[in-house]
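The records we work with from here on pair a chain with its fold. Each token is a code from a learned vocabulary of local backbone shapes. A record is reproduced here so that you can trace the correspondence yourselves:

_____
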Amino acid sequence: MASVGRNIAHDSARTHVTGESVFLDDVGPLTGELIAGIVPSPLARGRVKRLDVSAARQIAGVAAILTHHDLGRRNLFGPVVKDELLLVEDESAFLGQP
């Protein structure tokens, strides 16, 4: 326990204060890299009546549009019990839900 009672510099402290740190936003995209975007629910509570993504699929460069239908059982996740939705199915539960 040689570190007890002593100040220990954070491992990235020097690069932070000198401006040398490289952050994710500083790194350009890799060749062939896909960028994922998520459309958040604009409502805290809302029912999905219709979702037409046909126009979005026609945009140049779009590799895929995924909804909960594409994920099936994989739409459920959670740290212990997989009981949380990754993407909204029939009804949004909170503002910004993917």
About this structure: The chain has a mean pLDDT of 91. Strands lie at 46-47, 76-77, 84-85, 91-92.
